[in-house]
Amino acid sequence: xxxxxxxxxxxxxxxxxxxxxxxxxxxxxVSFILEPGRTVALVGQSxxxxxxxxxxxxxxxxPTSGRLLLDGKPVxxxxxxQHAYRHQVQMVFQDPFGSLxxxxxxxxxxxxxxxxxxxxxxxxxxxDRVQSLLRRVRLDEDLAERRPHELSGxxxxxxxxxxxxxxxxxxxxxDEPVSMLDVSIRLGVLNLLSTLQQEExxxxxxxxxxxxTARHFSDDILVMYQGRIVERGVADEVILNPQxxxxxxxxxxxxxxxxxxxxxxx
Length: 266
Known about the structure:
The chain has helices at 50-57, 79-88, 106-117, 123-136, 153-165, 183-199, 211-217, 235-240, 245-253, 257-265, and strands at 4-17, 20-34, 39-43, 65-70, 73-74, 89-92, 171-175, 203-208, 220-225, 228-234. The chain has 266 residues and is an alpha/beta fold. The protein has a single domain (4-265), classed as Rossmann fold (3-Layer(aba) Sandwich), CATH 3.40.50.300. The strands form 2 sheets. A 6-stranded mixed β-sheet has the order 6-7-8-3-9-10, sandwiched between helices. A 4-stranded antiparallel β-sheet has the order 2-1-4-5. Helix 6 (183-199) links the parallel strand 7 (171-175) and strand 8. Helix 3 packs across helix 4, helix 3 (106-117) runs parallel beside helix 5 and helix 5 (153-165) packs parallel to helix 6 (183-199). It is globular.
């Protein structure tokens, strides 16, 4: 049962312009917990700090201050500690076209993280794991022999999800996982993530600018604005009864078919 916590985390970047330097505070005192079996949506516009949070959670960036805790313990910086951390926390990147190496087969992409985190498996066992991962993301097993350019965008993102599942994590960080996909296939990928979260008791952070999908695919919503969490709560409560002006602005900007139908009828 894996839990991941950000506790009062701040991230600052030093920016230089000629002889001057300034400090950009991308994340400002953010705290939240990811727990097994729950999906938390982190919602905000571009530049609000969402992707910086993702980088901190996946150890691509280190916080300037605050703490990152895995199962209540600070995350170590040594090689073994980082390996153990990445066994438990995996990321699904935004771009399914750039996150897969075009020179390697789908099978290679899936076998590599399995072999890294489960050493000692035979070739037959590795092949069985790869086929199992493909089935888990609802892809045909024969896709293992293909290369990414032979797959559609939706298939590539399912391969990326399968790759993230390879080590056997307890936490998935999904950074805008459908924003670069055709509208017609976004729902299928989101439904897959929701099903996997329930079947495997995963903790999921769903990072998005889309308040509508955040409501339907998340248990809780965190609204981020200028590096801070300005509102948080159960998904329906945040959407139906927003307390912060920025949340109300996001809600008004989100597509609402029922509201549009009422306007047309009126």
